[in-house]
Task: structure prediction
Amino acid sequence: YMVMKLNDKAKEFITNALGVAYKQGFCPYIVLAHAWHETGGFKSCPGYNAFGMKKNLKWKGWLKRFTTHEWLKSRKHKIIDEFKAYPNFKANVKNYCKLIKRLYPESYDKRNSRFNTISYFEGLINFRYQYATDPSYINKCNNLCNKIKQKGPIREMVHELIRVKPWWEPILDK
Result:
C-alpha cells in the first residue's frame, strides 16, 4: 500500500480524529502512518480500531473478533484474536493516546512531546509491552510516515487540520 490513496475512511480519520492526537502532543504524521499501516490504507478497520489494539483484561468496551497475523519465531502465523471496538475514530484515537502515554514511555517523550519517527516505532517494539511482532514493523511504519510527509493531498489534509506550519516537521526531516 505504498501508493497512498485517500479513501472515505482515511478522510474520516484525518478530519475527525487526527486533531485529537495533535492536541495531546502527538505528531499527526506518525499517528497517521501508524493507523495507515495497521489498517492497510484504511481498507480494513473493524470497530473503528485504526491501530489494531487488542483487548486486554481491563477493557470493558465493545469487541470485534477477526483474523490477523502474528510473527512467532521468525514465521508469520494467521490467527483469530479479539480487538477493541469503538463507536468512532475519535474514541479510538483518545484510547490510543492514553495507551501510548501509559505503556510506551519510550515512544512518548513527556518533556517536550516531540517525536522522531524511528524512535517512536522502536519504542513500540523494543519495550516491555511489544506492540507488534512483525520484524519489519519499524521500517514499514517509517516508510509510510516519509510517504505521508511528501507533498500531496494527504499532507495537505494534515496541514489544513492544524492550520499552521507544523512544529514537529524539522524534527522528522532529519
